[in-house]
Amino acid sequence: MPEGARHGWDGLTEPIVEHGSEGLDMARSRRLSRASLRRIGRRCLVVALVLAAIPVVLTFLYLPSFVHPISTLMLKDLATFSGYDRRWVSIDDVAPVLAHSVIMSEDGQFCFHRGVDLGELRGVVDDALAGEATRGASTITMQTVKNLFLWSRPLGSVRKVVELPLAVYFDAVMSKRRIMEIYLNIAEWGPGIYGIEAAARHHFGVSAKQLSRRQAALLAVSLPNPIARNPAKPGPGLRRLASLIERRASRSGAYVGCLD
Hints:
Blueprint: E1 5-7, E2 13-15, H1 19-61, H2 72-79, E3 85-86, H3 96-106, H4 118-129, H5 140-149, H6 156-173, H7 176-186, E4 193-194, H8 196-204, H9 213-222, H10 236-250
Parallel strand pairs: 3-4
Antiparallel strand pairs: 1-2
Helix pairs in contact: 1-6, 3-9, 3-10, 5-6, 5-7, 9-10
């Protein structure tokens, strides 16, 4: 009788089915799959920890005033050979009214919060739960860590989850004055225009130290959309916003005290 066959009742031969062997193979395959998933999970965890460590380490490297950080947008411009104009300038060489205008336009509680404005954040959450349109709640510190370490699009919601703890950490390590200095030197003020010195010279032909109250207000209100808003050629809406910020900056008082 040939091996692997047997006689049935009708005299025909039938193959022998190795059920036990198939079961062992399936169990072995499941064990290998679980082991592979665990390996992948461990590797993903290692990658996540390394990525999380980068901004933690860089924040300490950026503490000294002689270090001049660049933003992820600048890196993108370098990688795509687009080039950019950025001239680092100390906050001591920036007209105080410019920093005051930026605070009153972008983050009125900059001197008082710890990286995240919890009051504004709660308002955004309440609006979202009520199904209403949400307003921006990004602080200057949050915008700084986004520009230094993160991305703008896509996955904006995922970025926000990372951005919040980073902003709290950044604010705990950095002085408010240093945060403002870095922000003013990496903020985008037009296509390929980064930092207040390049922006002042590009839009108004003066240095950052020579900016007038009106010029400072126009530059501040262009920050939310620097590609579409041109401070040198403002429309009626931008002029109205600038007038409002100019008035607020003139009465900023304690709101800007952390920069003194």
